[in-house]
Design a protein that fits this description.
With 159 residues, the protein is an alpha+beta fold. Helix content is 31%, strand content 48%.
């Protein structure tokens, strides 16, 4: 599965980079994240509760930041598994200043297996896009309204 998307943060390049490196903000905004804990230099372990159509389950995995070029780009490498299947993927995240805001370009590729993969590529693609949109919308709200809390119900109401 491949995904390319661009998101906008109403903040400077440096502020946007700092937010993308803030593990507390990431954990807060990552749908289903129960815990995100350090496991070495730029490496983290994650526990997630995932619900995808009729398939739900707990997943454990690792997230690593590689090829960091602050404040311009980095590569995100993800591996995770649970009873319902597995995911292995990577994403190149590039930040681009545009006036007083920052464009976040994401080019991702993932391999998915198990029950998750059997639900159908079209559904998986749509759910993945919606999850990424929710994640980056939450981060954008964090940066535009510091101290605000994010209510995932907002996305459901807008959908």
């Amino acid at each position: 599965m491949e995904l390319n998307a661009t998101y906008v943060f109403d903040a400077s390049l440096a502020e946007s980079w700092d937010l993308l490196m803030d593990t507390k903000a990431i954990a807060h905004c990552l749908p289903g994240c129960r815990e995100l804990r350090p496991a070495g230099d730029d490496r983290y372990e994650v526990d997630l509760a995932v619900a995808l159509a009729a398939i739900a389950g707990d997943f454990k995995g690792t997230v690593a930041l590689k090829d960091k070029v602050p404040p311009d780009s980095y590569t995100l490498v993800v591996e995770g598994s649970g009873r319902q299947g597995f995911v292995k993927g990577h994403a190149t995240v590039t930040l681009e200043a545009e006036g007083g805001r920052t464009l976040i370009h994401v080019a991702a590729r993932a391999d998915v297996g198990g029950k998750i993969a059997r639900i159908g590529q079209r559904m998986l693609d749509g759910v993945t896009r919606a999850t990424m949109k929710r994640f980056y919308r939450c981060l954008a709200k964090q940066i535009s309204q510091p101290g605000s809390t994010y209510d995932p119900q907002e996305d459901i109401e807008e959908a």
